[in-house]
Amino acid sequence: MLSAIKSSFQPLTKQYGDTRWWLGMLLVVVLAGASVALSKLPIMQSAQFSSLTIGIVLGIIVGNSVFARIATRTDVGVDYAKSILLKAGIILFGFRITFAQVAGVGWHGLLTDVVMLLGTFILAVQLGKRVFKLDEQTTILIGAGSSICGAAAVMATEPVIKAQAHKVSVAVATVVVFGTLSMFAYPIMFEYMGVSEHAYGIFVGSTIHEVAQVVAAGTTVSANAADTAVIEKMLRVMMLAPFLVGLSFWQSKKHANINAHGGEQKAGISIPWFAVLFIVASGVHSLSVIPQGTTNAIIWFDNILLTIAMVALGLRTHVGAIRQAGIKPLLLAGCLFLFLTLAGFAINVGIAQLF
């Protein structure tokens, strides 16, 4: 793991002396600042559009207009933000979670999240491959975003499978569309579910895409439902690390088999070190050795890093590539939305009866 970290940061000495690094970083930081400012507007807050979502949209707009003229003078910094800063943001994301929160929802919440994660991702892979004939990268990204924690999961999965920027943007778009739909639909559904606020919170946390959307769907019903939903969602977020490690093993094994049949040397296992450090960050946060004010500052800074990464991703996304992807990614995400909502409710009720 140490060698992987070292290799990731080795190019820094060269980059710091490169004007393209500084200009590229300046570009993404300015656009990220604009995204954060826009996210503070009442209309954006009422729609629960985070700076991450605004950042990728703003990045796509600039990337498909003026960026082409300055790409050769800013590309090093933009690509650095899209890779290294993204991984740093995922690591710091661990400071949002404690092991005590995980224990708070008990075995009931844990089992529900595991079943929903595995069920949603396996369904995504099968539908994407067999029904919609989508490429593997797009399928995995949409599956990760739907089954774990929305845009953050899509971004964390990107370096593991080395996905192309436009495929990441497509996956993030599906999270925005169906996560937003869930945010408004779930509170309406609550009146007809016949479940307690606590059970509703477990359902919300185990099935809705983004953390912000979970907060909105839970708060609309009650503070108790919101608290339960957020804790359940945080448990689901914590599963991001083992998911990435498992995905890396699966990809390495698959490529090793392909290479073996082709007579080439087998590929080695590549463990995503940033996923391991994500758990370490959660462990440190769980020990309460860092003052709450410092933790809040880390979370704020993490949001900035992730927004910068989203902007960089948008800058590298070409609208033509998204258009070429067609409607199939949305259809796949729509099927996963129906699974999360309908089958997810049935799974929640079934597991609840076991405890």
TrEMBL record:
Transmembrane segments: 21-43, 49-72, 84-103, 139-156, 168-188, 200-221, 233-250, 271-291, 297-318, 330-351
Domain of life: Bacteria
Matching InterPro entries: UPF0324_pro, UPF0324_YeiH-like
UniProt keyword list: Cell membrane, Membrane, Transmembrane, Transmembrane helix
Localization per Swiss-Prot or TrEMBL: Cell membrane
Pfam families listed in its UniProt record: Cons_hypoth698
Topology in the lipid bilayer: Multi-pass membrane protein
Cellular component, GO annotation: plasma membrane
UniProt record similarity statement: Belongs to the UPF0324 family.
NCBIfam families from the UniProt entry: YeiH family putative sulfate export transporter
Protein name (Swiss-Prot/TrEMBL): YeiH family putative sulfate export transporter
Species of provenance: Acinetobacter cumulans
